[in-house]
Amino acid sequence: MHDDLVQKIKRDPGYHRLVKTRSRFGWTLTAVMMLVYYGYILLIAFDKELLASKTGAGVMTWGMPLGLFVIVFTVLVTGLYVRRANKQFDDLTQAIHDRVQS
User: Fold this and answer.
1) pTM of the predicted structure, to 2 decimals
2) Where along the chain do its domains lie?
3) 66 and 51 Cβ atoms separated by less than 8 Å
4) Which DSSP letter does residue 85 get?
5) pLDDT tens-digit profile of 44-100?
6) Under 8 Å CB-to-CB from 96, ≥6 apart: which residues?
7) Is 47 helix (H, G, I), strand (E, B) or coil?
8) Nearest to 64 by CA among 77, 50, 78, 80
9) Pfam families, per this entry (predicted)?
10) Disulfide check for 92: which of 18, 54, 72, 82 has CB 3.0–4.6 Å away?
């Protein structure tokens, strides 16, 4: 019985759409996050003068707000994925579940 349910799910076109959409979205966010993170790391490695330069008359350098941006960006990307997962991906999963159970 369990194998029959698995086969029904695998044959469902909605399941294939869900996997394709979720994978594409996840890999896109991963690529953007890696670009931001590794861009910051490359700045640290190859342009220390830029990150060490002061933002104004105070003592803060550009490295601090850029580092904070990377952290905040990570939280925003995570929130974006969770929001889409809770709306679109959960709805698709429920629709697949309903079709397979009937």
Assistant:
1) 0.80
2) 2-101
3) yes
4) I
5) 999 999 999 999 888 999 999 999 999 999 999 999 999 999 999 898 888 888 888
6) 9, 12, 14, 15, 18
7) coil
8) 50
9) DUF485
10) 18
